[in-house]
Amino acid sequence: MKKAISIRSVIPNIITVLGLSLGLTAIKFTLVQNFHSAIICIVLAAVLDAADGRIARLIKGTSKFGAELDSLADFVNFGVAPALMLYIWDLNVYGNLGWVVTLIYIIGVLIGAFFLKVWGAETSFIKTISIFVWTIIFLIALFYADKHERKN
Q: Average pLDDT in the 108-119 region?
């Protein structure tokens, strides 16, 4: 007999899927070189990422599947999407070196995700969000620096 899925566990997963969709949309915007919209998508994905876990704990809707889905969304939203954005935006002009830097960034995000998985995301709120927040701050700074440079 199969266990029924409670609506309490579905709601946070819907929020996570919306965040993942924003990360994938950021990749789409990056591919057409609409970096401003890509950054907005990543920032909105970060907002949803902060909300989904809190809502899940608040309504007692946490699940193993939800935790795994959240990890996938984090990797896409704060690993793959920003890395591709950096590569297409600027690092591609450096050829293979630019691609190696992109891969190092993605591997760094994977290592960070591994450490969070092994030692738990609850160890420190600052440790948990620092990679994601600094990624977003870095992308915003790059966008505005590039925009300012092109005006001059």
A: 71
Which conformational region is residue 95 in: left (phi greater than 0), alpha (psi within -120 to 50 degrees), or beta? left
Sign of the dihedral through C-alpha 56, 106, 82, 28? negative
Percent of the chain topping pLDDT 90: 32
Cα distance between residue 138 and residue 114, in whole Å = 22
Stated pTM of the model: 0.76
CATH 1.20.120.1760 for domain 7-151: yes
The Cα 144–Cα 152 span in angstroms is: 13
Residue 37 makes CB contacts below 8 A (sequence gap 6+) with: 26, 29
With CA atoms as reference, report the closest residue to 19 among 84, 83, 69, 82.
69
95, exposed or middle or buried, with CB in 10 Å at 0-12, 13-18, 19+?
exposed
Q: What is the pLDDT of residue 7?
A: 87
DSSP code string of 108-134 = HHHHHHHHHHHH-GGG-HHHHHHHHHH
